Amino acid sequence: PQACNCWVGQTAMARTLTNALASGCLAQAYTLTGLRGIGKCTTARLIARALNYPAGASVEMPELTAQCEAILESRHMDVIEMDAASNTGVDNMREIIDQVRYAPVQARTKVYIIDEVHMLSKSAFNALLKTLEEPPPHVKFIFATTEIRKVPVTILSRCQRFDLRRLDVATLQKHYAKICGLEKVAAEDEALRLISKAAEGSVRDGLSLLDQAIAYGDGGGQTADVRNVLGRWEKGHMGTLFEAV
User: Fold this and answer.
1) What is the spatial distance between Cα 217 and Cα 225, in angstroms, rounded to a whole number?
2) What CA–CA distance (Å, rounded) separates 245 from 208?
3) Residue 3 — very low, low, confident or very high, per pLDDT cuts 50/70/90?
4) How many C-beta neighbours within 10 Å does residue 7 have?
5) Are 128 and 97 in contact (CB under 8 A)?
6) pLDDT tens digits, one per residue of 83-129
7) Which residues are 237's β-sheet partners?
């Protein structure tokens, strides 16, 4: 469906959220897990945007409003992002607990996004339990983590969990081709395929390789340049090697 275009390759999650928003049966908290660079924080911001879309809560968001832009750029006053790696203590959780009772200023829903949530201390998790179980109706929590096994079961049982899967080569290649089109970069299909394969399912890793290849090729994306950046052989070289052996 069209709604799934917001989350590249994560159609199951998009369908779940579409139905939940349509029925009004939303979880009080979400946990996003997956490998590095798969888009957990970006997805969290998109969920916050969907919850607060001016025309009504929906994953179909055709217009980029001022509020949407503020959420995506992490500067909306009602969408609070926190890095648990540098805010691990119980005092940090107490600040959140003290703030949740206040209604949002601009948005319909106040959203707390906590990245690397597995880094929180045991006491911080315990302090969050009661608020997470019965938050005010205007508050949602979204947790992101690469180490889901380090998150206490008592926390996970209070969240709706989404496992963001690795993207296949074809999906990544299509996504990078779209980005190159928007950036007006001429990139060969084979070059994008090699980058997508080397990314191993991580969108961010592939984008880093794409940036490197474009810089190496002085603004272009040629297959030979990508092979030099990746250190990959031509296919024919392998045959020549075996013939020599």
Assistant:
1) 6
2) 36
3) very low
4) 21
5) yes
6) 998 888 889 899 999 999 999 999 999 999 999 999 999 999 999 99
7) none
Q: Report the C-alpha dihedral over residues 221, 223, 228, 229, rounded to 10 degrees.
A: 40
Phi-psi region for residue 200, left (φ > 0), alpha (ψ -120 to 50) or beta?
left
> Would you say 41 and 143 are in contact if contact means Cβ atoms under 8 Å apart?
no
Where on the phi/psi map is residue 218: left (φ > 0), alpha (ψ -120 to 50), or beta?
left
Q: What is the CA radius of gyration of the chain?
A: 21
Q: What is the pLDDT of residues 7-50, one digit of tens each?
A: 777 888 888 988 998 888 899 999 999 998 898 999 999 999 99
Report d(CA 181, CA 84) in Å as an integer.
Answer: 36
HSE at residue 37, side-chain half, CA atoms within 13 A, is 13
Distance (Å) of CA 207 to CA 161, 213, 223? 26, 10, 16
Q: Amino acid identity, residue 172?
A: L
The token pair that represents 173 in the structure block: 């290649």
- CA 109-102-121 angle, to 5 degrees, is 85
Number of H helices, E strands in the chain: 11, 5
Determine the angle formed by the axes of helices 169-182 and 203-216, rounding to 10 degrees. Answer: 50
